[in-house]
Amino acid sequence: MTRRISWTLLLAVAMSFTQCKDAGDDVQIDDENELITSVTLKFTEEGTTNTTSFSYKDADGDGGNAPTRFDTIALKPNKTYTLAIELLDESKTPASNITEEVAEESDEHLFVYTPTPSTLLTYTYGDKDINNYVIGLTGKAVTTAVGTGKLRVQLRHQPESKNGTPSPGSDDVSLEFTLKVQ
Amino acid sequence: MNRIVFSFLIVITSFTARAQTTDCACFVKGVVKDQHTGQPIVGATVLIVGQNSGVFTDENGRYELRNLCPGAYTLECRIIGYNPFREKLDLTAGHEENFNLLEQEVHLKDVEITAHRTDAPSSQPLSTISGSDLEKTRGQNLAESLKGFTGVTSLQTGSSISKPVIHGLHSNRILIMNNGVRQEGQQWGSEHAPEIDPFIATRLSVVKGAAGVRYGSDAIGGVILVEPEELPFDKSLSGELNAVGFTNGRQGVLSGTLQGGIKGFKGFGWRAQGTMKRGGNIRTPGYFLDNTGISEKNFSLAAGYRNKGLGIDVFYSRFDTKIGIFSGSHIGSVTDLLNVIENGEPFVKSGFSYDIARPNQNVSHELMKAETHYHFQNGNRFQWTIARQLNDRNEFDLHRPRNDSIAALNHPELTFKLTTLTNDVIWDHKPIAGKLAGQLGISTLYQYNLMDGRPLIPNFNQFNIGFFWMERYVKNGWELEAGVRYDYRTLTSFRIVNREKVSQDFKFSNFSGTLGATRNFSERFSARLNFGTAWRAPNVSELFSDGVHHGAAAFEKGDATLQPEKALNTIASLKYASPRFTAELGGYYNMISDFIYLKPQPEPILTVRGAFPYFKYTQTDATFKGIDLSASWEIVKYTTVSSKLSYLRVYDQRNDNYLVMIPSNRIDNQIKYELPEDAKWHKAYFSIGNLFVAQQKRVPPASDFLAPPKAYSLWNVQAGSTFNLSEKQQLEVGIAVQNLFNVAYRDYLNRFRYYADDMGRNISLRLKWKFGA
Question: What pTM value is reported for the model?
Answer without folding.
Answer: 0.83
